[in-house]
Design brief:
Order of helices and strands of chain B: EEEHEEHEHHHEHEHEEHH
Low-confidence stretches of chain A: 1-22
Helix content of chain B: 25-40%
Distance between the termini of chain B: 32 Å
Low-confidence stretches of chain B: none
Structural class of chain B: alpha/beta
Mean pLDDT of chain B: 89
Oligomer: heterodimer
CATH architecture of chain A: Orthogonal Bundle
Structural class of chain A: mainly alpha
Radius of gyration of chain A: 22 Å
Strand order of the largest sheet of chain A: 1-4
Helix content of chain A: over 70%
Chain lengths: 349, 232
Amino acid sequence: MNDRTTTAESPRAAAIGAFGGQSSRMPLTIVAVAIVFVVGAVAPTRFAGDFVLRLANEGLLLGMLALSVAFLMSQAGLVALGAASVYGGAGLLFAIAMSQWDLTPMSAVCASFLIIVVYATVLGALIVRTNPLAFMMLTLAAGEMISHGVMLEGLRDYTGGADGLVVNFKGSILGMEAADFANPARFWLVAWVAAWLAGLALWTVGRSRLGAILRAVRENEERMRFSGFDTYLPRLIAYVLVNVVAAVSGLLHVLNAGFVSPESLGLSVSTNALVAALMGGIAGSVGPILGGLIFSFAQDEFGARGLTQLLTGIAIVLFIVVFPRGVVGGLWSVVQLQARALSGRRETS
Amino acid sequence: MLKIEKLSVSYGSVRALIEVDLEVRGDGALHGVIGPNGAGKSTLLDAVCGRRRPTAGTVRYRDEDITRRTVAWRRRQGMARSFQRTSVFQDLTVYEQLHLVAQHLGDERLDDVIEVMDLADYLDQKAGRIAYGVQRRVDVALALIGRPHLLLMDEPGAGLSAAETLRLFEHLRDLVRERKIAAVVVEHDVDAVFACCGTVTVLDLGRHLATGTPQEIRADHRVVAAYLGTAA
């Protein structure tokens, strides 16, 4: 009995991801993470110029959008191709709420969020019960309907049509005014904190029981139903969560840019988010955000030479075929290999 | 425990089950279901567990008509199913998947299931990396969690040797007897069925052919003509 209990408990400690024997490394990990957070928040504002900071800000926001795409892929096995419709849509709703509905900035943010949550819930309720391919096509279809819908002549007074919409931002949000959001250095701090919070939130969900259920449903949905699980609600919850993250990044984008363009709702932004997620690695939270930063700088470099599509194509091939785990996943594999080699050498010596 | 009345299932123009009646008591004995290929055995289990909606007839479980109930609901009410093709979580360790299901169904006696299915040596291995025979035991173990009242086992011996199948059936027989639950086992290994089942039902071409003790079934000329003559 004791052997069986011991046998059952040691895999249990590993199974639920407890740090177990690594508990002595926990404080060190927390300290390292805190250092990275502080250095990352401060260093760019001190050493980087406005141009680099603007690119980095775009990269962080793209990274957050990529995070929303990556989470759904890695946890639920679903690819959402309409992420930009939420990203750009949240910003558009904010702009409309400020200019048409005369709401205060904070009220406009809340209204945008509420509408996005309702939209994600209704759309998710319809599409998460489909198979992964149908889900992908339905998100694409929904995204395209919205991105083309805002260009309709009849809605031009609200959406600005092809001209986009200037954000009529008066007042403040959490003590920050329009000029603060437009300032690259000050915005970097906001975007950095938001990216960390989004990453931490989704990482926590991934390690929770909801995350375990999502991954099990992804792997064998039928077995989960036959084990008494509701396989629909967890995926719906995940879909709404990732759309909230996408909405946050979209709102921050429009606060920073002061303008909503119809392109921000288009398929190219959704594709960029997907590529950024693949670049950085879809497992975990660090990969997509890093992927967003890499993509943003690479796109600027390639774009200057008119080679943006070439970048996108090469990146897709590279990171699916050659580096399927992305930059972060690949680096982690190298670290693990080195650690194993080191511990092997210690044992033999 | 389980009562099936005039159950019919069709796949388009193919009538897989035709007005089948069956009654299974929860008296701690295995109820075997045998028949040639295409007899409708797996379809019968699919209709009972909710995987397939019947075109006619009813399924009554513990005196309640559950014909329209979902798979997940039936599982939570104590009706468990194992599969002909092993259905486990390849990327999870044996313990992870058993624990996940046990936690959901509120079963605090996971050790009992691990012991009964002899899985203690494999708990920390991913299901995709263990031998097929052990995967079958994991598949059955997933069905045993939550102390179900009714077990539906679809060819639990598929892919196992005759000796392994007989051993598995003996495990199941003892478990079912000890827990006083009902179990319906579809199986091609007629010897294992006759050795361990208290009641045997024979299906042929979607219809109920005969139900009785193993001795009665062996002696039934209709069964011999339709199935046992070729299976023997």
